[in-house]
Amino acid sequence: MAKTDPKKTARAKRVRRIRKKIIGNSVQPRLRVFKSNKHIYAQIIDDSAGITIVSMSTQDKSYTKPEESDKTGDAKQVGLLLAQAAKTAGVSKVVFDRGGYIYHGRVKALSEGAREGGLQF
Prior knowledge:
By secondary structure, this protein is α+β, with helices and mostly antiparallel strands. The chain is 38% helix and 19% strand. It has a four-stranded mixed β-sheet. α2 packs parallel to α3 (106-116).
């Protein structure tokens, strides 16, 4: 019998609990965050149509890593780039889905970068 990581199951429960309350539509889509140990990913999703409108990550081709940068700085830069791409796609208001992570560190930096880029939460 395989062991299950308690951190992963706890985060999955938090994700399900959050997703009950947060639903994105065409007027106000959902901004979803996922972070790994090295990278951060963000998507703007229209749940009513079931499509991803815009996505951005530290692995994206349009992202260039600055010389002196930490993971929090990278997250803020991803937020700024995501906001620019969302504006070109016609999105100005979003609902923030933190993905089961606490609103701290890289998640907070990404949301602040998106706000600086012009997205409204």
